[in-house]
């Protein structure tokens, strides 16, 4: 059976219609932030085994950026939110498509120790 993603705008759609950008947690540093902050933002990611928030774009549908709460071990999708709504809920300003502006938080559920 195909994996299905519940797009909040288009309904239940096959995962092949989506493109994944990755971890939604990193917050873009200010333009004048130190080199280390930019280095961490661009290069460092947690390798989560469990539930995490990821940015996905519905490229084969509405083209909106979404935040998908997914278990990276079981591939079970727990929740899907429009990235702009997710960012608003986090209290951060939106703009520029929402994906890069999302502040992102993690549930921490099921995360493996490093
Ligand atoms: Zn859609």
For the report, how would you describe the main beta sheet?
4 strands, antiparallel
Number of strands: 6
Helix content: 10-25%
Count up the domains: 1
What does this structure look like?
- With 114 residues, this protein is of the alpha+beta class.
- It has a single domain, classed as Folate-binding fold.
- The chain is 15% helix and 29% strand.
- It has helices at residues 35-43, 83-90, and strands spanning 4-7, 11-14, 19-23, 51-57, 65-71, 77-82.
- The strands form two sheets. The chain has a four-stranded antiparallel beta sheet. The protein has a two-stranded antiparallel ribbon with strand order 1-2.
- The radius of gyration is 14 Å and the shape is globular.
- The relative contact order is 0.23.
- The structure holds zinc ion.
- The site of zinc ion has 7 residues, from loops.
- Residues 7, 9-10, 58, 61-62, 64 line the site of zinc ion.
């Amino acid at each position: 059976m195909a994996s299905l993603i519940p797009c909040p705008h288009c309904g239940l759609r096959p995962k092949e219609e989506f493109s994944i950008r990755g971890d939604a947690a990193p917050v873009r540093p200010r333009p004048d932030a130190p080199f280390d902050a930019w280095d961490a933002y661009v290069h460092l990611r947690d390798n989560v085994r469990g539930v995490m928030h990821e940015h996905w774009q519905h490229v084969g549908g509405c083209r909106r950026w979404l935040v998908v709460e997914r278990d990276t071990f079981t591939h079970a999708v727990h929740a899907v939110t429009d990235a702009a709504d997710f960012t608003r809920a986090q209290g951060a300003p939106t703009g520029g498509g929402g994906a890069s502006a999302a502040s992102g938080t993690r549930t921490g559920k099921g995360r493996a120790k490093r």
